[in-house]
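FraH-related protein
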Amino acid sequence: MTDDVQNNGTAMATDDHAAIADQPQTDAASDGSTSHYADLPTPQGGFAKLVLKRSGAETDIEFPLNPPSIAGRFDPAVGPIDVDLGSLPEGSYVSRKHAKFTYEDGVWRVTDLGSSNGTFVLNDDFERVETADLRDGQEVALGNARFVFHLTPASAAGTAD
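Predicted structure tokens:
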């Protein structure tokens, strides 16, 4: 994979996990496939993704989360990172190891890893957090990069217990 953002803003490949926009989309109802995540190992509890948000709207740039996933910027001294946000214009506000996304006991969580510009979760207002539980559709900001956290059907089913 490459570390490039295509100029049309529709896709990004960051590491071994290409942005979902780069992967073929499938329709479970028509072809029997389960999802476009088929090539990734299935974590306990299913999948989640971060969808980049710009100008108040979700984009089609998506980052799959395979827990535990560390989001940040690639650093040649440290090596690859699970979710590399360094190619985004907003990436300059993201620390090298900014936040960790985990799935434990049926709950997705984000934990700030001592970032310079903070990790924020939108409840009534954006709140800077050390650790926070996440729900489907909740906004998360890593520094100046804003995302919407989405569960896939497998994750949503796993959290309905």
